[in-house]
Write a structure and sequence with these properties.
The complex is a heterodimer.
Chain A: E1 4-8, E2 11-15, H1 18-25, H2 30-34, H3 42-53, H4 59-62, H5 72-79, H6 83-86, H7 94-103, H8 106-112, H9 118-125, H10 130-139, E3 144-145, E4 149-150, E5 157-160, H11 169-181, E6 188-191, H12 198-214, E7 221-223, H13 227-235, E8 243-246, H14 251-256, H15 261-274, E9 284-288, H16 292-295, H17 304-316, E10 322-326, H18 338-354, E11 359-362, H19 373-385, E12 390-394, E13 398-399, E14 404-405, E15 407-408, H20 409-419, H21 425-433, H22 456-459
Parallel strand pairs in A: 5-6, 5-12, 6-7, 8-9, 9-10, 10-11, 12-15
Antiparallel strand pairs in A: 1-2, 3-4, 13-14
Chain B: H1 3-20, H2 34-40, H3 49-53, H4 60-67, H5 86-104, H6 109-114, E1 121-125, H7 131-136, H8 138-141, H9 146-150, E2 160-165, H10 170-185, E3 196-200, H11 206-214, E4 218-224, E5 235-241, E6 253-259, H12 267-284
The chains are: A alpha/beta, B alpha/beta.
């Protein structure tokens, strides 16, 4: 195994493997400390970056951070690597790649995407500042579609998340109405179910499908159950628009989610076969998040940001409609405070976009993390500037089922207002047809609306 | 805004609608008309946008209070520009502040000990020396401080040891833990109960270490759960039979969650369930996925501590 060294201020630093070098070069975060992988000092961290800047990109193709024979994600990354797309980068070091990215245009970034591996993306991100991560990601354009089109320039989509702790249909419908009237739901109307029982999931699917059909809403629904439940429900004719699954960057971590690439292949084919999309056929919705591999003891000594980027190789295989990094959900033992969560959000968005994925974010925190609603505002603003495809939104920023705080529908309106962003075009036209837009295209505040029929059984 | 205030306000609005049948907005009628109005509107044929946004519509001012009966979600908040109204912004901050204070307020074992008259107690710390370490190093919160482990009482062949662990909410433990120990112990006729262990900077798995050190057959960990925006005082109870530190996993435990009268599970109900689980665990010689709470459904949760 190759050893990497750097001399900084007269002190020689030595890193015994590429994985060790990547970990030591990572910006500080609690999860890498918990794993015993973090740099021992601030100087060692910078020394690692000097050493990493000199590593040729081609090294990542010959020196996998997790052995090829041990891990199917490594095999997926190396077996599907596009040598022709990689050609413009083949002579670059990681440091040179950073400069190439900063100068590249949208077309060049799209052309190299199939030649970039997750480890290359993770490595270069460790040399980039927060502003670099914004500037490069903003140039990348990834457009996907089902009943709405996600990722067009000047657009920001939202997931409407009408969760309820007991999946009560009345409670879900009430929150659904609230989100629609606040102009949300063009990325997906997605519910995290309280149970994974097929019956409960199907009830929610029928509820969402009924509303989408009745009001001709150009969006897609998703009940975020396990992939095997979705496959089962599709076989029984349930109205499944998108197949959801949480994924991670190692075979063992995916196994802890009860997922294999074979299972995902099967679900992907089944969902495509339903042909429920109208303007596109992207049918997968993935969620990821730094720290999941470590929490499953399945990180193989690789730092949490690099492992996270490897999950995007899994996502890429299935041409997803949406990839969502749930960035602050996992807790302070992985990302301690608002600063670490912001950094992770920018890294994940950058790496995903660079690899060609429709990246959005659940910008969020738990009550035991050192973060608050001001951190949400900071993160939202930076990620919207960076061109995030979508963000997760909840009523008042408070999810009563998952017990965490995320962005609110109001926050999305703020982003549209200050950055001139608009919803997905199909959804924007629908809002207009429903009388919910004013003459400037802003959201109209109404005192009543026919959509309130969604809640009519409740009011009776 | 306290929850009580909020609930009261909602009740008043609902009553007002029921009595007068009137509310804000043009063309708004009583609640019985909501469905009729909605039915009368055919969305596909709608040509006049003004109708949709105003006159033909159902009044939201009276609808939101009705919908809030079905969810605690913060729906119908209104807005000023894109922002939340001041009272809602402060309401969210108040809920977050309660949760933050619950996480960071110090555990006071003496409060719990004083509420357990006649029951011997012993205080221990985990290997996490302070709150900052505790939050970032879950592994340390699962292990006893070595000195404290050495001082744990041994002998007497206890059937069960209760461990009161601060977890992520000292407030939950201060308010509910002693009452739960008393209510449960009262149902354990003939059981040999070890001194109650009061554990600081402790996670659920610390109970494994305690049970092993005291040679107890079973351990009940009463732990402060991660505070949410609507509940900062929720207590969890985790039952584990013959735990082995470092080997036992969460799949080997049974859990009761959301113990926080009067809004959540009350002490007598929770103690009844817990004592029943303990009885069956003793018969079967195990806890976890092989032992279901058959008394009802839905109390077993996946909260991670």
């Amino acid at each position: 195994m190759t050893t990497y060294t750097a001399t900084l201020g007269g002190e020689r630093h030595r890193f015994d493997s590429l994985a060790r070098l990547l970990a030591a070069a990572s910006p500080e975060r609690s999860g890498d400390r918990l794993a015993g992988l973090a740099a021992a000092s601030a100087r060692e961290r910078v020394a690692a970056r000097w050493a990493l800047a000199e590593v040729p990109l081609a090294t990542f193709l010959t020196e996998p951070v997790i052995p090829y024979e041990d891990d199917d994600v490594t095999r997926l990354i190396l077996d599907t690597h596009d040598t022709a797309a990689f050609a413009p980068l083949a002579g670059l070091t990681v440091g040179g790649f950073r400069e190439w990215l900063l100068a590249a245009d949208t077309g060049a970034l799209a052309a190299v995407a199939p030649g970039v591996t997750p480890e290359m993306a993770a490595a270069v991100s460790k040399l980039m500042g927060n502003a670099d991560l914004v500037a490069v990601a903003r140039k990348v354009r990834v457009v996907t579609a089902f009943r709405s089109t996600i990722g067009l320039p000047g657009r920001l989509a939202t997931r409407l998340q009408p969760n309820h702790p007991t999946d009560d249909p009345a409670g879900v419908a009430a929150a659904l109405l609230d989100g629609l009237l606040l102009g949300s739901g063009d990325a997906v109307i997605g519910i995290n179910p309280a149970t994974d029982s097929p019956k409960a999931v199907r009830d929610l699917l029928e509820l969402l499908d009924g509303v989408i059909t009745r009001y001709s809403i150009p969006t897609q629904s998703c009940v975020l159950c396990h992939v095997t439940t979705s496959v089962d429900l599709m076989e029984r004719g349930a109205p499944v628009d998108l197949v959801f699954q949480s994924i991670a960057g190692t075979q063992a971590a995916n196994a802890s989610f009860g997922v294999t690439l074979g299972l995902l292949d099967e679900a992907y084919e089944a969902a495509r076969g339903l042909r429920r999309g109208t303007v596109g056929d992207h049918v997968m919705y993935f969620e990821t998040g730094q720290g999941s591999a470590l929490s499953a003891a399945a990180h193989h000594g690789v730092d949490q940001q690099t492992v996270e980027a490897r999950a995007y190789a899994v996502a890429r295989r299935y041409r997803p409609l949406l990839v969502n990094t749930v960035v602050g959900f996992i807790g302070p033992e992985y990302l301690y405070d608002g600063r670490q969560i912001l950094r992770a959000a920018l890294e994940d968005h950058f790496c995903g976009k660079l690899l060609g994925l429709p990246m959005g974010l659940d910008i969020c925190y738990t009550n035991h993390a050192d973060a608050d609603d001001d951190d949400i505002a900071t993160m939202l603003t930076m990620l919207a500037v960076a061109g995030a495809s979508f963000v997760i939104c909840t009523p008042g920023g408070d999810d009563i089922m998952l017990n965490y705080q995320s962005a609110s529908y109001h926050d999305a309106l703020y982003l549209r207002e200050v950055l001139g962003l608009r919803p997905a075009p199909e959804f924007e036209a629908w809002l207009d047809a429903m009388g919910l837009l004013d003459e400037t295209g802003g959201l109209r505040e109404v005192t009543g609306h026919p959509l309130t029929a969604i809640g009519r059984e409740l009011a009776a | 805004m306290s929850e009580t205030t909020e609930v009261t306000e909602r009740a008043e609005v609902i009553d007002a609608v029921g009595v007068t049948g009137e509310a804000e907005g043009a063309g708004v009628r009583g609640t019985a008309d909501v469905a009729a109005v909605a039915d009368a509107v055919d969305v596909a044929d709608m040509s006049d946008k003004a109708d949709m946004a105003g006159t033909a519509a159902v009044g939201l001012g009276e609808l939101w209070p009705l919908l809030r009966r079905h969810t605690q979600a913060r729906i119908g908040l209104g807005r000023s520009g894109s922002g939340l109204l001041t009272r809602h912004r402060l309401g969210l901050q108040a809920a977050h502040a309660a949760a933050r204070d619950a996480v960071h307020s110090a555990f006071e074992p003496d409060l719990v000990a004083a509420a357990l008259p006649g029951m011997p107690t012993v205080r221990v710390r985990s290997a996490a020396g302070d709150r900052l370490t505790y939050l970032q190093r879950p592994d340390l919160g699962r292990r006893l401080d070595p000195v404290d482990r050495a001082h744990l009482p041994r002998g007497g062949d206890p059937d069960v040891v209760f461990v009161v662990a601060d977890g992520l909410s000292s407030r939950a433990v201060h308010e509910h833990a002693a009452a739960m120990v008393r209510a449960t112990a009262a149902r354990l006729t003939g059981w040999r109960i070890a001194p109650v262990v009061l554990a600081e900077q402790a996670r659920v798995a610390l109970g494994d270490d305690v049970a092993a050190a005291m040679d107890a057959t079973m351990v009940v960990v009463l732990v402060g759960e991660r505070p949410g925006m609507s509940a900062a005082d929720s207590l969890g109870a985790y039952l584990t039979h013959r735990p082995v530190p470092g080997v036992t996993t969460d799949a080997d435990r049974n859990c009761l969650s959301n113990i926080r009268p009067p809004r959540g599970l009350d002490y007598e109900t929770a103690a009844e369930k817990l004592a029943a689980l303990m009885g069956r665990a003793r018969e079967l010689g195990r806890t976890g996925v092989g032992l279901k709470d058959e008394s009802d459904h839905g109390e077993v949760t996946d909260r991670i501590l």
